[in-house]
Protein backbone atom coordinates (compact mmCIF):
# COMPACT_ATOMS: atom_id res chain seq x y z
CA UNK A 1 0.00 0.00 0.00
CA UNK A 2 1.29 3.45 -0.94
CA UNK A 3 1.01 5.96 1.87
CA UNK A 4 0.07 9.44 0.67
CA UNK A 5 0.54 12.51 2.84
CA UNK A 6 -2.14 15.14 2.15
CA UNK A 7 -2.00 17.11 5.40
CA UNK A 8 0.55 19.80 4.54
CA UNK A 9 -1.66 22.52 6.06
CA UNK A 10 -1.06 20.84 9.42
CA UNK A 11 2.70 20.44 9.01
CA UNK A 12 5.21 19.76 6.27
CA UNK A 13 8.27 17.54 5.83
CA UNK A 14 11.56 19.34 6.31
CA UNK A 15 13.23 20.21 3.02
CA UNK A 16 16.56 18.33 2.60
CA UNK A 17 18.48 21.59 2.12
CA UNK A 18 17.00 23.01 5.34
CA UNK A 19 17.93 19.80 7.19
CA UNK A 20 21.45 19.98 5.76
CA UNK A 21 21.80 23.58 6.93
CA UNK A 22 20.62 22.64 10.42
CA UNK A 23 23.08 19.74 10.56
CA UNK A 24 25.98 22.01 9.69
CA UNK A 25 24.99 24.53 12.38
CA UNK A 26 24.39 22.01 15.14
CA UNK A 27 27.75 20.36 14.52
CA UNK A 28 29.87 23.44 13.97
CA UNK A 29 28.37 26.53 15.64
CA UNK A 30 27.50 26.32 19.30
CA UNK A 31 28.25 29.76 20.70
CA UNK A 32 25.61 31.94 22.35
CA UNK A 33 24.68 34.79 19.96
CA UNK A 34 24.75 37.18 22.93
CA UNK A 35 28.37 36.37 23.79
CA UNK A 36 31.03 38.83 22.60
CA UNK A 37 33.82 36.29 22.00
CA UNK A 38 34.54 34.68 18.62
CA UNK A 39 32.17 31.74 19.18
CA UNK A 40 29.34 34.11 20.05
CA UNK A 41 30.08 36.39 17.11
CA UNK A 42 29.99 33.40 14.77
CA UNK A 43 26.57 32.43 16.10
CA UNK A 44 25.38 36.06 15.91
CA UNK A 45 26.36 36.16 12.24
CA UNK A 46 24.16 33.11 11.52
CA UNK A 47 21.27 34.73 13.44
CA UNK A 48 21.64 38.08 11.68
CA UNK A 49 21.84 36.45 8.24
CA UNK A 50 18.70 34.42 8.95
CA UNK A 51 16.84 37.56 10.02
CA UNK A 52 17.84 39.35 6.81
CA UNK A 53 16.80 36.38 4.64
CA UNK A 54 13.34 36.12 6.19
CA UNK A 55 12.78 39.88 6.18
CA UNK A 56 13.63 39.97 2.48
CA UNK A 57 10.87 37.46 1.66
CA UNK A 58 8.18 39.85 2.96
CA UNK A 59 9.89 43.14 1.97
CA UNK A 60 10.54 44.08 5.59
CA UNK A 61 13.53 45.49 7.42
CA UNK A 62 15.56 42.88 9.31
CA UNK A 63 15.10 44.88 12.53
CA UNK A 64 11.35 44.25 12.21
CA UNK A 65 11.68 40.45 12.55
CA UNK A 66 11.39 38.88 16.01
CA UNK A 67 11.98 35.13 16.23
CA UNK A 68 9.51 33.08 18.30
CA UNK A 69 8.79 29.43 19.03
CA UNK A 70 6.21 29.36 16.22
CA UNK A 71 3.01 30.87 14.88
CA UNK A 72 1.08 30.46 18.12
CA UNK A 73 3.57 32.45 20.16
CA UNK A 74 3.82 35.05 17.39
CA UNK A 75 0.03 35.51 17.41
CA UNK A 76 -0.05 35.76 21.20
CA UNK A 77 2.80 38.26 21.29
CA UNK A 78 1.09 40.39 18.64
CA UNK A 79 -2.39 40.37 20.16
CA UNK A 80 -1.71 40.44 23.89
CA UNK A 81 1.46 42.50 23.53
CA UNK A 82 -0.20 45.17 21.38
CA UNK A 83 -3.35 45.26 23.52
CA UNK A 84 -1.41 45.76 26.76
CA UNK A 85 0.92 48.36 25.28
CA UNK A 86 -1.93 50.45 23.89
CA UNK A 87 -4.72 50.12 26.46
CA UNK A 88 -4.29 53.78 27.33
CA UNK A 89 -5.89 54.47 23.90
CA UNK A 90 -8.81 52.08 24.31
CA UNK A 91 -9.68 48.46 25.06
CA UNK A 92 -11.58 47.38 21.95
CA UNK A 93 -10.27 44.64 19.67
CA UNK A 94 -11.72 43.33 16.39
CA UNK A 95 -11.14 39.84 15.03
CA UNK A 96 -13.11 37.20 13.11
CA UNK A 97 -15.00 34.11 14.23
CA UNK A 98 -12.89 31.88 11.95
CA UNK A 99 -9.42 32.67 13.25
CA UNK A 100 -6.95 30.02 14.36
CA UNK A 101 -7.31 29.20 18.04
CA UNK A 102 -3.97 30.93 18.67
CA UNK A 103 -5.80 34.18 17.90
CA UNK A 104 -9.22 33.30 19.32
CA UNK A 105 -7.89 32.07 22.64
CA UNK A 106 -5.62 35.12 22.96
CA UNK A 107 -8.65 37.35 22.38
CA UNK A 108 -10.69 35.40 24.93
CA UNK A 109 -7.86 35.94 27.42
CA UNK A 110 -8.06 39.68 26.73
CA UNK A 111 -11.81 39.59 27.40
CA UNK A 112 -11.11 38.12 30.82
CA UNK A 113 -8.66 40.99 31.34
CA UNK A 114 -11.37 43.59 30.71
CA UNK A 115 -10.97 44.17 26.98
CA UNK A 116 -13.95 44.11 24.63
CA UNK A 117 -13.68 41.94 21.50
CA UNK A 118 -15.89 42.05 18.39
CA UNK A 119 -15.99 38.79 16.42
CA UNK A 120 -16.89 39.38 12.76
CA UNK A 121 -18.82 36.57 11.07
CA UNK A 122 -17.77 35.29 7.63
CA UNK A 123 -20.02 34.76 4.64
CA UNK A 124 -20.69 31.23 3.37
CA UNK A 125 -17.47 31.30 1.37
CA UNK A 126 -15.47 31.98 4.51
CA UNK A 127 -14.77 35.58 3.49
CA UNK A 128 -14.50 38.47 5.94
CA UNK A 129 -15.75 41.59 4.20
CA UNK A 130 -13.86 44.88 4.76
CA UNK A 131 -17.19 46.68 5.16
CA UNK A 132 -17.87 44.57 8.26
CA UNK A 133 -14.52 45.55 9.71
CA UNK A 134 -15.24 49.20 8.96
CA UNK A 135 -18.68 48.96 10.61
CA UNK A 136 -17.11 47.45 13.71
CA UNK A 137 -14.42 50.13 14.09
CA UNK A 138 -14.73 52.52 17.03
CA UNK A 139 -12.69 55.40 18.36
CA UNK A 140 -11.37 53.12 21.10
CA UNK A 141 -10.40 50.24 18.79
CA UNK A 142 -6.70 49.53 19.29
CA UNK A 143 -6.20 46.31 17.34
CA UNK A 144 -7.68 44.47 14.36
CA UNK A 145 -6.62 40.85 13.76
CA UNK A 146 -7.77 39.11 10.57
CA UNK A 147 -6.01 36.00 9.25
CA UNK A 148 -4.49 36.10 5.76
CA UNK A 149 -5.62 32.60 4.71
CA UNK A 150 -8.04 30.41 6.62
CA UNK A 151 -6.26 27.22 7.65
CA UNK A 152 -9.35 25.00 7.29
CA UNK A 153 -10.97 26.07 4.02
CA UNK A 154 -8.13 27.99 2.34
CA UNK A 155 -10.07 31.21 1.72
CA UNK A 156 -7.82 34.23 1.11
CA UNK A 157 -8.96 37.29 3.04
CA UNK A 158 -8.88 40.87 1.62
CA UNK A 159 -5.93 41.91 3.78
CA UNK A 160 -4.81 44.75 1.53
CA UNK A 161 -8.29 46.30 1.53
CA UNK A 162 -8.56 46.03 5.32
CA UNK A 163 -5.08 47.50 5.71
CA UNK A 164 -6.09 50.42 3.51
CA UNK A 165 -9.21 51.27 5.53
CA UNK A 166 -7.17 51.18 8.76
CA UNK A 167 -4.50 53.50 7.35
CA UNK A 168 -5.80 56.58 9.16
CA UNK A 169 -7.11 54.81 12.26
CA UNK A 170 -5.17 54.37 15.52
CA UNK A 171 -5.75 50.60 15.51
CA UNK A 172 -2.83 48.35 14.72
CA UNK A 173 -3.45 45.68 12.09
CA UNK A 174 -2.30 42.12 12.76
CA UNK A 175 -2.62 39.18 10.39
CA UNK A 176 -1.92 35.51 11.03
CA UNK A 177 -0.11 34.63 7.78
CA UNK A 178 0.84 31.09 8.78
CA UNK A 179 -1.13 29.46 5.91
CA UNK A 180 -0.36 32.26 3.44
CA UNK A 181 3.41 32.44 3.82
CA UNK A 182 5.05 30.21 1.26
CA UNK A 183 2.16 30.25 -1.21
CA UNK A 184 1.22 33.95 -1.45
CA UNK A 185 3.42 36.83 -2.55
CA UNK A 186 3.62 38.99 0.58
CA UNK A 187 4.73 42.61 0.82
CA UNK A 188 4.01 43.99 4.28
CA UNK A 189 4.28 47.57 3.03
CA UNK A 190 1.74 47.06 0.27
CA UNK A 191 -0.60 45.24 2.67
CA UNK A 192 -0.18 47.97 5.31
CA UNK A 193 -0.01 45.50 8.17
CA UNK A 194 1.70 46.33 11.47
CA UNK A 195 2.06 42.80 12.81
CA UNK A 196 2.28 39.47 10.99
CA UNK A 197 2.82 35.94 12.30
CA UNK A 198 4.76 33.29 10.33
CA UNK A 199 5.56 29.65 11.13
CA UNK A 200 8.50 27.59 9.88
CA UNK A 201 6.95 24.13 9.86
CA UNK A 202 4.30 25.11 7.29
CA UNK A 203 7.00 25.82 4.67
CA UNK A 204 9.19 22.71 4.96
CA UNK A 205 11.22 24.13 7.82
CA UNK A 206 11.64 22.70 11.34
CA UNK A 207 8.95 22.77 14.00
CA UNK A 208 9.24 24.96 17.08
CA UNK A 209 10.28 28.18 15.37
CA UNK A 210 8.56 31.10 13.68
CA UNK A 211 8.63 34.86 13.73
CA UNK A 212 6.57 37.98 14.21
CA UNK A 213 6.94 40.92 11.88
CA UNK A 214 6.61 44.10 13.97
CA UNK A 215 6.51 47.27 11.92
CA UNK A 216 8.99 49.85 13.11
CA UNK A 217 7.35 52.13 15.67
CA UNK A 218 4.64 49.66 16.71
CA UNK A 219 4.03 49.71 20.46
CA UNK A 220 4.08 46.19 21.88
CA UNK A 221 4.82 44.73 25.32
CA UNK A 222 6.80 41.48 25.67
CA UNK A 223 5.09 38.39 27.05
CA UNK A 224 8.24 37.09 28.73
CA UNK A 225 10.95 38.70 30.82
CA UNK A 226 14.53 37.74 31.54
CA UNK A 227 16.82 39.07 28.83
CA UNK A 228 17.26 41.56 26.02
CA UNK A 229 17.31 39.18 23.07
CA UNK A 230 15.19 39.82 19.97
CA UNK A 231 15.22 43.60 20.35
CA UNK A 232 13.89 43.23 23.94
CA UNK A 233 10.65 41.80 22.55
CA UNK A 234 11.28 38.09 23.18
CA UNK A 235 13.91 37.19 25.80
CA UNK A 236 15.73 33.87 25.88
CA UNK A 237 18.68 32.41 24.01
CA UNK A 238 17.69 32.03 20.37
CA UNK A 239 17.08 28.59 18.87
CA UNK A 240 19.89 29.07 16.36
CA UNK A 241 19.73 25.66 14.67
CA UNK A 242 16.00 25.89 13.96
CA UNK A 243 16.22 29.56 12.96
CA UNK A 244 18.88 28.68 10.39
CA UNK A 245 16.68 25.88 9.03
CA UNK A 246 13.69 28.24 8.95
CA UNK A 247 15.65 30.84 6.97
CA UNK A 248 16.83 28.22 4.49
CA UNK A 249 13.28 26.95 3.97
CA UNK A 250 12.02 30.52 3.61
CA UNK A 251 14.61 31.29 0.95
CA UNK A 252 13.75 28.13 -1.00
CA UNK A 253 9.99 28.61 -0.82
CA UNK A 254 10.10 32.30 -1.77
CA UNK A 255 12.12 31.47 -4.88
CA UNK A 256 9.52 28.93 -6.02
CA UNK A 257 6.22 30.67 -5.27
CA UNK A 258 4.82 30.63 -8.80
CA UNK A 259 6.09 27.13 -9.56
CA UNK A 260 4.61 25.76 -6.36
CA UNK A 261 1.32 27.55 -6.93
CA UNK A 262 0.93 26.01 -10.39
CA UNK A 263 1.77 22.51 -9.15
CA UNK A 264 -0.55 22.65 -6.13
CA UNK A 265 -3.40 23.92 -8.29
CA UNK A 266 -2.84 21.02 -10.67
CA UNK A 267 -2.93 18.60 -7.74
CA UNK A 268 -6.16 20.14 -6.46
CA UNK A 269 -7.73 20.07 -9.94
CA UNK A 270 -6.71 16.43 -10.42
CA UNK A 271 -8.23 15.46 -7.08
CA UNK A 272 -11.54 17.18 -7.91
CA UNK A 273 -11.58 15.77 -11.46
CA UNK A 274 -11.13 12.23 -10.14
CA UNK A 275 -13.95 12.61 -7.61
CA UNK A 276 -16.24 13.86 -10.37
CA UNK A 277 -15.26 10.96 -12.64
CA UNK A 278 -16.15 8.56 -9.81
CA UNK A 279 -19.54 10.32 -9.52
CA UNK A 280 -19.09 11.05 -5.82
CA UNK A 281 -21.53 13.42 -4.13
CA UNK A 282 -19.44 16.25 -2.67
CA UNK A 283 -19.40 20.01 -2.10
CA UNK A 284 -16.31 22.22 -1.80
CA UNK A 285 -16.23 24.40 1.31
CA UNK A 286 -14.78 27.88 0.97
CA UNK A 287 -14.30 30.26 -1.91
CA UNK A 288 -13.13 28.55 -5.10
CA UNK A 289 -12.29 31.95 -6.57
CA UNK A 290 -10.37 33.37 -3.58
CA UNK A 291 -8.50 30.34 -2.30
CA UNK A 292 -4.92 29.15 -1.92
CA UNK A 293 -4.03 26.29 -4.27
CA UNK A 294 -2.84 23.85 -1.61
CA UNK A 295 -5.96 23.61 0.59
CA UNK A 296 -9.10 21.70 -0.41
CA UNK A 297 -11.92 21.29 2.11
CA UNK A 298 -14.70 18.95 0.97
CA UNK A 299 -18.08 18.03 2.43
CA UNK A 300 -19.28 14.49 1.69
CA UNK A 301 -23.05 14.30 2.37
CA UNK A 302 -24.22 11.18 4.18
CA UNK A 303 -20.90 10.55 5.94
CA UNK A 304 -19.33 11.58 9.24
CA UNK A 305 -15.84 12.93 9.69
CA UNK A 306 -14.70 10.35 12.23
CA UNK A 307 -15.46 7.38 9.97
CA UNK A 308 -13.94 9.16 6.99
CA UNK A 309 -10.68 9.91 8.77
CA UNK A 310 -10.34 6.38 10.15
CA UNK A 311 -10.98 4.80 6.76
CA UNK A 312 -8.68 7.21 4.96
CA UNK A 313 -5.92 6.40 7.41
CA UNK A 314 -6.46 2.67 6.90
CA UNK A 315 -6.16 3.30 3.16
CA UNK A 316 -2.83 5.06 3.70
CA UNK A 317 -4.09 8.60 3.16
CA UNK A 318 -3.21 11.28 5.69
CA UNK A 319 -5.83 14.04 5.74
CA UNK A 320 -7.58 15.92 8.51
CA UNK A 321 -10.63 17.82 9.60
CA UNK A 322 -10.78 21.23 11.17
CA UNK A 323 -12.27 19.57 14.21
CA UNK A 324 -10.63 19.06 17.55
CA UNK A 325 -10.56 15.60 19.10
CA UNK A 326 -11.55 15.78 22.74
CA UNK A 327 -11.91 12.68 24.92
CA UNK A 328 -12.48 10.47 21.91
CA UNK A 329 -15.19 12.62 20.32
CA UNK A 330 -14.88 14.88 17.29
CA UNK A 331 -16.28 18.36 17.84
CA UNK A 332 -17.69 20.42 14.98
CA UNK A 333 -15.30 22.80 13.26
CA UNK A 334 -15.72 26.35 14.57
CA UNK A 335 -14.87 27.64 11.08
CA UNK A 336 -17.57 25.63 9.30
CA UNK A 337 -20.02 26.41 12.11
CA UNK A 338 -19.43 30.13 11.58
CA UNK A 339 -19.82 29.72 7.81
CA UNK A 340 -22.91 27.46 7.70
CA UNK A 341 -24.46 27.45 11.16
CA UNK A 342 -24.36 24.90 13.96
CA UNK A 343 -27.13 22.80 12.40
CA UNK A 344 -25.35 22.23 9.09
CA UNK A 345 -24.27 18.71 8.19
CA UNK A 346 -21.09 20.18 6.73
CA UNK A 347 -19.74 20.71 10.24
CA UNK A 348 -19.72 16.91 10.69
CA UNK A 349 -18.84 15.52 7.23
CA UNK A 350 -16.00 17.68 5.91
CA UNK A 351 -12.39 16.69 5.28
CA UNK A 352 -9.40 18.92 4.54
CA UNK A 353 -6.91 17.65 1.97
CA UNK A 354 -3.80 19.81 1.65
CA UNK A 355 -1.01 19.42 -0.89
CA UNK A 356 2.69 20.15 -0.69
CA UNK A 357 6.30 19.17 -1.18
CA UNK A 358 6.67 15.64 -2.57
CA UNK A 359 3.09 15.20 -3.83
CA UNK A 360 2.54 14.15 -7.46
CA UNK A 361 -0.41 14.13 -9.87
CA UNK A 362 -0.45 10.34 -9.62
CA UNK A 363 -0.78 10.56 -5.85
CA UNK A 364 -3.60 13.10 -6.12
CA UNK A 365 -5.52 10.83 -8.50
CA UNK A 366 -4.87 7.73 -6.38
CA UNK A 367 -5.90 9.46 -3.14
CA UNK A 368 -9.08 10.81 -4.74
CA UNK A 369 -9.92 7.37 -6.11
CA UNK A 370 -9.52 5.76 -2.70
CA UNK A 371 -11.53 8.57 -1.12
CA UNK A 372 -14.33 7.96 -3.62
CA UNK A 373 -14.34 4.23 -2.77
CA UNK A 374 -14.55 5.00 0.95
CA UNK A 375 -17.37 7.54 0.53
CA UNK A 376 -19.35 5.14 -1.65
CA UNK A 377 -18.91 2.35 0.89
CA UNK A 378 -19.95 4.54 3.82
CA UNK A 379 -23.03 5.91 2.05
CA UNK A 380 -24.16 2.64 0.46
UniProtKB/TrEMBL annotation:
InterPro entries: Aminotrans_V_dom, Aminotrans_V_PyrdxlP_BS, Cysteine_dSase, PyrdxlP-dep_Trfase, PyrdxlP-dep_Trfase_major, PyrdxlP-dep_Trfase_small. The keyword Iron applies. It comes from the Bacteria. It catalyses: (sulfur carrier)-H + L-cysteine = (sulfur carrier)-SH + L-alanine. It is an enzyme of class 2 (transferase). The keyword Transferase applies. GO terms for molecular function: cysteine desulfurase activity; iron-sulfur cluster binding; metal ion binding. Residues 4-363 form the Aminotransferase class V domain. PROSITE patterns: AA_TRANSFER_CLASS_5. Keywords: Iron, Iron-sulfur, Metal-binding, Pyridoxal phosphate, Transferase. Its EC number is 2.8.1.7. It holds the Pfam family Aminotran_5. Its cofactor is pyridoxal 5'-phosphate. Belongs to the class-V pyridoxal-phosphate-dependent aminotransferase family. NifS/IscS subfamily. NCBIfam families: PRK02948.1. This is cysteine desulfurase. It comes from Siminovitchia acidinfaciens. The lineage of its organism: Bacteria, Bacillati, Bacillota, Bacilli, Bacillales.
Amino acid sequence: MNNIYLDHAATTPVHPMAAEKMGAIIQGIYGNPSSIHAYGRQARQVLDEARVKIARTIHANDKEIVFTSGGTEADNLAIIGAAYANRDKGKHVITSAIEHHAVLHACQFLEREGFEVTYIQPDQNGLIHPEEVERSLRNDTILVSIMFVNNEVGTIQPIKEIGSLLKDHQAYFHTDAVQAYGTENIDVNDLQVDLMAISSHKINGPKGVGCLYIKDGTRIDPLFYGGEQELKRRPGTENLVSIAGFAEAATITSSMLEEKGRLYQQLKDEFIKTLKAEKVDFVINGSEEHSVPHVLNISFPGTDVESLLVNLDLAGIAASSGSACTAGSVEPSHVLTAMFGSGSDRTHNSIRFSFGYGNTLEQAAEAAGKTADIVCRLTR
